[in-house]
Amino acid sequence: MKLFAIGDLHLPGGDDKPMDVFGQHWEGHFERISQDWRERVSREDVVLIPGDISWAMQLDNARPDLMAINELPGRKIIIKGNHDYWWNTLSQVKSALPQGMEALQHNAIDVGCCVVCGTRGWTIPTKDTPLPPADVKIYNRELIRLELALQAGMKLKGDNPLVVMMHYPPLYDLERETEFTALLEKYPVHTVVYGHLHGAGLKVNFCGEERGIRYQLVSCDGLDFRLAEIPLD
Fold it and tell me: What distance in Å separates the CA atoms of residue 3 and residue 124, rounded to the nearest whole number?
């Protein structure tokens, strides 16, 4: 069993929304992802999808995108991104998911090779760009939700690695000590996968090991539209 991750698929959500408006490299992006996915992922493998799955505004319009993802091999675990407006309550999302796809929302799932827990996260405040009050409230709420997810993961962990999936980055290359990383370091986290960053934003990402935790950016354009295999050794 192998673990893969790829985020920010940005499927059309029932509308004709070509992604190449964000650059020619996005042209036919899901076809390229799907080809790589079929070549490398087996039925027994697990694929983490950390948010921004569909442009749909309503759950019914997201169903074709969810079905398109589920036609690909492997067990899929998804979380909510900032553009997933179709994602209402967790129970509603779960009821709409096809067999073989599961949703995380500040909780945890034992997938066999590891325990996966996660939450959406939020924009990190920096010295140069502090958050406005409305964002501070969301940021603090996401810290609470991340701890709930980590606590849920610890109940399932046993001897398995603990993998955290977030949509927003918990750190940047020049901001490696954040409230998110401090919280993650309280637990035996093996790897954190995250997305959200695109284009020029890819330049601020951090991939590598920091204070014993591996961090991996998995937004699809940052991966050249190929899945990242996540080592668990």
Answer: 27
Q: How far is CA 107 from CA 77, 151, 155, in A?
A: 12, 8, 11
In 71-217, where does DSSP find H-type helix? 90-96, 133-157, 179-184
Architecture category of domain 3-229 in CATH: 4-Layer Sandwich (3.60)
H helix count then E strand count, the chain: 5, 11
Query: What are the mean pLDDT values of the chain's consecutive 10-residue runs (233 residues total)?
Result: 96 71 79 97 97 94 95 97 94 92 96 96 91 95 98 97 98 95 98 94 94 97 96 93
| Among candidate residues 168, 171, 174, 173, the one with its CA nearest the CA of residue 135 | 168
Strands of the sheet with 213-217, listed across from one edge: 107-110, 115-119, 162-166, 189-194, 213-217, 208-210
Q: How many CB atoms lie within 10 A of CB 39?
A: 10
Domain boundaries of the chain, sorted by first residue: 3-229
Alpha carbon distance 233, 231 (integer Å):
6
Q: Supply φ then ψ for residue 75, to 5 degrees.
A: -90, 130
